[in-house]
Amino acid sequence: MDKIVIQGGKPLHGQVDISGAKNAALPVMAATLLSAGRSRITGLPQVRDVDTMARLVEELGVKVIAFQDGEAVLDAATVNNHVAPYHLVSTMRASCLTLGPLLCRLGRARVSLPGGCAIGARPIDQHIKGLVAMGADIKIENGYIIGQASKLKGAHIYFDMVTVTGTMNIMMAAVLAEGETILENVAKEPEVAFLADTLNQSGARIKGAGTDTIVVQGVAAIDPIKCHIFPDRIETATYMIAAAITQGDIEIRNCVPAHVESISLKLIESGAEVEEGETSIKVRGRHPVLPVSVKTQTYPGFPTDVQAQLMALMCISGGKSVIVENIFENRFMHASELNRMGADIQVEGRTAIVAGVNKLSGAPVMATDLRASASLVLAGLVADGETTISRVYHIDRGYQNMEEKLSKLGASIRRVK
Q1: Each residue's pLDDT tens digit, 164-203
Q2: Is the pTM value of this prediction over 0.85?
Q3: Closest C-alpha among 176, 184, 272 to residue 219
Q4: ∠ CA(285), CA(346), CA(331), 5° rounding?
Q5: pLDDT score at 115
Q6: CA atoms of 35 and 17, how far apart (whole Å)
């Protein structure tokens, strides 16, 4: 199993280009199941989760014509398998996004209960609630969601909690449903709006994506998907914090500054300099790092996917910070690993109290999930001595060429096989 070894203490300088958004790519790949034709997606990040989704749609009968260099050509003319198996779905929660499209396309679906990072309960009940309201017969049996529907019908659905994948799944199912579907209390993330825009370009009729209410008028069929994936806002935020934590100076290119506004504001509050361009952000770290507190929220609030990275920065602040995790109840597993590096973090339920220390020290640590792994890399970049991070397959799920990008910025980082 691979490890990443970092010699810390080097400020990062230079330019870094952001890859395509993983969380935008995966639902669009699932949406290719809705059209009996050849879809073309460019700008895909070259990460493990995208590889897994390609394998999954291929398992369902999609012919993968091309899949390299960030481009996928997927021919869904002969989707003939309604089973999304455990060995693929268990590694990635976004696999559940095949549920709605399969019910539309084949009238049945057997999708393993989803897996992914062990960051807490991520129930599928809102997906099931929406599909049942649209006329599907759903049951859970032997670890699988089993659904049947001769024809989905439009419905008025209120989500009891804001769910990104739930919003996407029901929105995709509604595209080919009969009549009008109204979705309330939906997720407003940029990835949701992108999926809606992409489907609309293929002939869907979706309004309101990016607001609290989405209205979908069902259509008989849509054309194949053609789109280019926009830059990853979580990768953008990670390199912004890399500049701040190392007191470096980084220009982050090919990004969407509006997508990371909540992160920019917190970094400015911490003393960093942030300069936004049209498609770029310059971040200059400053000493001392000022303590900031944050509560994770759904978009446009501070994202849960950046909570671990900000915690790494607060470990070296000149005071006490309070971080409240409102999205997932088990997303502080990185705190104990950061403490191994000399951090002073006390976790009480969904709250972490971080007392800044003068310095972190290199240590052997273990990545517990995708974003936790990024926080350990950031801590390693600023720590004295050598940090060895194990279980880095988590990093490969969501960050393209992380070691290479950091090396070009001046980090001493290498992968050990």
Answers
A1: 999 999 999 999 999 999 999 999 999 999 999 999 999 9
A2: yes
A3: 176
A4: 75
A5: 52
A6: 32
Would you report the helix, strand and coil content of the chain in percent, each value rounded to 5? Answer: 35, 30, 35
**Distance in angstroms (rounded) separating the CA atoms of residues 128 and 207:** 22
Q: How far apart are CA 344 and CA 315, in angstroms?
A: 7
Q: What is the per-residue pLDDT for 116?
A: 42
Contact call for residues 211 and 227 (beta carbons, < 8 A): no
* pLDDT tens column, 141-170: 988 899 999 999 999 999 999 999 999 999
Length of the chain: 417
**What is the structure's pLDDT at 122?**
46
* 48 Cβ contact partners less than 8 Å away, ≥ 6 residues apart: 393, 396, 397, 398
- For residue range 330-355, what is the model confidence (pLDDT) as tens digits? 779 899 999 999 999 999 999 999 99
Q: What one-character DSSP code corresponds to residue 246?
A: T
SS3 for 286?
coil
Residues forming the active site:
117
Helix (H), strand (E) at residue 317: none
The yes or no reply on domain 3-19+231-416 and CATH 3.20.20.70 is: no
Q: Measured between alpha carbons, how far is 165 from 159 in angstroms, rounded to an integer?
A: 12
Instruction: Provide φ and ψ at 176, rounded to 5°.
Output: -105, 10
Strand 108-112 to strand 213-217: parallel, antiparallel, or no bridges (unpaired)? unpaired
Backbone Cα Rg of the chain: 21
Assigned architecture for domain 22-228:
Alpha-beta prism (3.65)
Q: How far apart are CA 136 and CA 124, in angstroms?
A: 15
Cα–Cα separations (whole angstroms), residue 50 to 208, 237, 393: 27, 20, 14
Q: How many other C-beta atoms can be found within 10 angstroms of the C-beta atom of residue 141?
A: 8
205-207 vs 226-228, strand pairing mode:
unpaired
Question: Residue 303: is the preceding peptide bond cis (ω within 30°)?
Answer: no
Q: What is the phi-psi region of residue 247: left when phi exceeds 0, alpha when psi lies from -120 to 50, beta otherwise?
A: left
Q: Cα dihedral angle (195, 200, 206, 207), rounded to 10 degrees?
A: 90
Q: Where in the chain is the domain with CATH 3.65.10.10?
A: 3-19+231-416, 22-228
pLDDT of residue 91: 79
Q: Can you read off the two tokens belonging to residue 109?
A: 């679906």
CA distances from 56 to 61, 113, 312 (A): 9, 14, 34
- Asked if pLDDT for residue 68 goes beyond 80, the answer is yes
